Amino acid sequence: MKIALVGNPNSGKTTLFNSITGSNQYVGNWPGVTVEKKSGKLKTDHSVEIIDLPGIYSLSPYSSEEIITRDYIVEEKPDVVINIIDGTNFERNLYLTSQLSELGVPMVLAINFHDAMIKDRISIDEEKLSKILSYPMIKISALNGENIDKLMDIAISLKGTENKRIHTFNDDIENLIEEISKFIDKEEKLKRYYSIKLIEHDDKIRPKLNLSSEDYKNIEDLISKIEKKYDDDSAALIADSRYNQIEQLVKGSLVYSNNGKSTFS
Ligand code: GDP
Ligand code: K
Ligand code: MG
Q1: What is the ipTM of this complex?
Q2: Residue 115: CB within 6 Å of ligand 1?
Q3: Measured between alpha carbons, how far is 189 from 194 in angstroms, rounded to an integer?
Q4: Is the pLDDT of residue 259 over 50?
Q5: Which ligand is nearest to the CA of 12?
Q6: Has this prediction a pTM greater than 0.90?
Q7: Ligand 1: which residue has its CA nearest to atom 25?
Q8: Do residues 38 and 18 touch, judged by C-beta distance below 8 A?
């Protein structure tokens, strides 16, 4: 099976990758670009391939790293994604998590830098969070190996499970996604992803869809209606909605404690 490591730059992907693959590594380049491609075999089970994907902040196509990562997940379909999160920058890292959850791949959230979180007295209410996020979640330290074996056990156990998405937009945008999905001839669980990409005016997605210029005109008409109603650009509507949800989520579940007592279990 294939497990892909996905996360923001400097969230600890390569540290984790090195720790779980040891010397069983292959380094190359992604086709057509000079971005490094790293894969390897899990030390404890050689039938598990690990892919260290380029670090990214979002799945919007601003860089070749972002395009490589999203194309890999959508087209190569790893069995499981480990989303590595820098626990000391939790809120910022969750933006990518929100986007990743649209890709239809089972996912576990590895909240890394647990050692640094303890030092900084940052506590995350996992129970509250996992109710809303509906993903398994585990605090790890890629640097000192804490909970790495448990993380890999969880990841392996997720193969073949249903992926749940995190985010629900307001009714107008959900209806828009639904309407645009009807134009998209892709497997059911990816229609939503492509539909959101079209709403974001992500042109890099166009070659992957078989849409006529008439389709595009109809889609654009649907998008314009919502843009007029909210007097905002459609990509901004999508991004703002994600940021707002994450802000609410973090408000109720992230605790910065400086009273000298750690609240970790
Ligand atoms: P990547 O960009 O996601 O591949 O991140 P790296 O694995 O290169 O890690 C970035 C930096 O964070 C390096 O200096 C690592 O040593 C450090 N790092 C990674 N994981 C941890 C951790 O769990 N705790 C601490 N304290 N540092 C870490
Ligand atoms: K790095
Ligand atoms: Mg790296």
Answers
A1: 0.97
A2: yes
A3: 10
A4: no
A5: 1
A6: yes
A7: 113
A8: no
